[in-house]
Amino acid sequence: xxxxxxxxxNNFNKDKQERDFxxxxxxxxxxxxxxxxxxxxxxxHAKKQEFQLGIHFPLRANQWIHRDPQFLSRDEEARKQSxxxxxxxxxxxxxxxxxxxxxxxxxxxxxxxxxxxxxxxxGHSSEYDFEAEYNFDVFAKExxxxxxxxxxxxxxxxxxxxxxxxxxxxxxWKSSLLEDLLKEYPRIKLCLDIARLHLQDELDEEFxxxxxxxxxxxxxxxxxLSNGRVVDNFSNNHYPALPTLKTDEGWADVERYxxxxxxxxxxxxxxxxxxxxxxxDEELDACYEWVTRLINSTGENCA
Length: 303
Fold this sequence. Notes:
By secondary structure, the chain is an alpha/beta fold. About 40% of the residues lie in helices and about 15% in strands. The chain has 10 helices and 10 strands. The chain has helices at about 15-20, 35-50, 75-95, 135-155, 170-175, 175-185, 195-205, 210-215, 255-260, 280-295, and strands spanning about 5-10, 25-30, 50-55, 100-105, 110, 130, 160-165, 190-195, 220-225, 270. Helix 8 runs parallel beside helix 9. The radius of gyration is 18 Å and the shape is globular.
């Protein structure tokens, strides 16, 4: 079963495609393409090499004032614009028949006022809101509307909707809201980002990423894999997940995360969401070989 993927970001990089992609890989995830010619070139390669196309929303850059749609915004106009933005982009990408379309969730994220998130890479202040100003009942209402809307679009265009968990507050990991909706709308799946989970673990002492992964792994379609540290999150993010990286030096415990997921899921895909250009060919091969071994380690409780 093909389960590994690479990403193409901003443009179609031929050198990256030739160096990073393998015939045994499942496909390529594309995001924020600056020009349509790059999209068409990627699609042509997908047909020629017979790999699948995934989309990290948005496929095209500069289609709205922000990258991510803010479908949970307390501002009604921002919500309306976000849904229109998603509608237009889904209409456009449908012609390319993507396997999945990934959207960050929740947006905006909801955070504790007490947390120091100066080391979290927010693109704009509108990407977050505070718990004290956004109560759970309102949040749940907007989330339910979004799930129903997204499920309808997925049925219309026949793609797998994937929600990449962004910064996660207690509305997600203390309540049953998300899990209830994933059961109600089984077409909708999750993406777990290892580096993102690790960073939140370092910044939020109340957050337990491993129990969250255990809870949501069975709903996971995709894992975004890279590594990172709080100390150099801005200058050295999306570093490749190499087997030589040590947890006592601040790196994420990739093996532990994947081992937990394997316990209930043996079909999830891995997207190498890393800057492969910062490592050698030998290190890239070592990364691929290590991750392949980890994801093929049989979980005792896999269905």
